[in-house]
Write a structure and sequence with these properties.
mainly alpha, Serine Threonine Protein Phosphatase 5, Tetratricopeptide repeat
Length: about 375
């Protein structure tokens, strides 16, 4: 922020210096206005808002100072002083000699001001107006409209404009976002028991982003509700191909589905394959549980062996639990204390982490509550997680 204000101050000084040289005759116009020095003074005293105010006052709006006024308006918005930003931008729009290109630039900034102020109707009207003109700013306008509709949770409109934008930029991050918009609609349909429509929307999401874990998990949930367990298994297994980090959250559902279709050996095979390619605490524990049904000793040996390769607190807790069942007297007492400690340690640890901003929590959010990115919150891996 300080850097930008300093830059604006330098640029303003330079423009005024240039004007002075080029029109030495008109001394009243060429003199550096006192507001400029007032601005510098505020800047030196770290009073950034007052400095921007003074710089705005010091510069007449003309073609030379247009960019500076635009930058100063943006600075006000970034500092949260939306009313001042709107004033600066509306002042620019009122210039009689403004070119159509400049006018659109200002309108875009004004739309951002309105969005920051929560005046979404006004922002939408302004943006739709610019979008209709099909100018060089089309990608920026459409991106702002997608942001606006996403904020309003108007998913149909966000998808419609998002697709137009995708045709222009083909950005993978946008495709990922659009897939989540389709999932939002699908989740709503599923909640209203409109299974067929929900499945179609999850498919739309996958058409946009074939690695959309949320769409496969959503479709699996619809199939489970319809008791179509084999179809659900197919969807849940798809998650392992889409993003290995999410496998742990599918294990519980897969276990239930396989049990319904008497397919325990298929479940074991899936777990073994996952353990080979991307081991996680949940997969290892599920495998140990399957083994312990036939042979408890072998399950324990298996768990110890796996913990050496892939140590996790969750795994140690399970091992202590196994030992507890066989321990007697004093050893049992000590193991119980140890189990309680490990249990508290695992229960108090956050389970999900945003790979984008580092936000962590106990719940899986498809949209990070902190950085607002889609699909970046994933199960935590490593010693304290999976
Ligand atoms: Zn985040």
């Amino acid at each position: 922020m300080l850097f930008i204000v300093l830059f604006v101050a330098l640029l303003a000084g330079w423009i005024m210096g240039r004007r002075k040289n080029s029109s030495a005759v008109d001394k009243s116009k060429s003199a550096v206005p006192p507001d400029y020095f007032r601005g510098l003074n505020h800047l030196l005293n770290n009073q950034h808002s007052e400095a921007i105010d003074a710089f705005v006052d010091s510069l007449q709006v003309n073609s030379e100072t247009f960019d500076i006024h635009l930058t100063l308006g943006n600075l006000f918005r970034k500092k949260g002083e939306i009313e001042k930003a709107i004033n600066v931008h509306q002042n620019l729009l009122a210039r009689p000699e403004i070119t159509p290109r400049e006018m659109r630039l200002v309108q875009l900034e004004l739309a951002s001001d309105f969005m920051s102020a929560g005046l979404l109707d006004r922002a939408e009207r302004l943006l739709l107006n610019i979008a209709a003109k099909q100018t060089e700013f089309q990608p920026t306008v459409l991106a702002l409209l997608v942001d606006l509709y996403e904020f309003e949770q108007s998913w149909d409109q966000a998808i419609q404009i998002g697709h137009q934008l995708y045709q222009l930029n083909k950005k993978q991050t946008l495709a990922k976002r659009l897939a989540h918009f389709h999932c939002e609609i699908a989740d709503e349909k599923h909640a209203k028991n409109k299974s067929k429509e929900a499945l179609q929307d999850y498919q739309n999401a996958l058409d946009m982003d074939e690695k959309c874990v949320r769409a496969s998990m959503g479709a699996a949930n619809v199939f489970i509700a319809q008791k179509r367990y084999r179809d659900a298994i197919k969807e849940l297994k798809q998650v392992a191909n889409q993003d290995k980090d999410f496998v742990p959250i599918t294990v519980g559902l897969l276990r239930d589905c396989y049990e319904k279709v008497w397919g325990n050996s298929g479940f074991t095979k899936f777990l073994q394959e996952q353990n080979r390619t991307s081991p996680s605490a949940t997969v290892i524990l599920a495998l140990a549980q399957r083994l312990s049904k036939d042979n408890k000793d072998y399950a324990e040996i298996f768990l110890i062996d796996q913990l050496r390769k892939h140590p996790t607190i969750k795994g140690f807790r399970e091992l202590v639990q196994m030992q507890l069942n066989e321990a007697t007297d004093e050893a049992k007492e000590h193991l119980e204390v140890l189990y309680e400690l490990l249990d508290q340690l695992t229960e108090n640890k956050h389970k999900y982490l945003c790979r984008q901003c580092g936000f962590s929590g106990f719940q899986l959010h498809w949209k990070c509550p902190s950085c607002k990115s889609w699909g970046t919150v994933k199960p935590i891996h490593g010693l304290e997680g999976e």
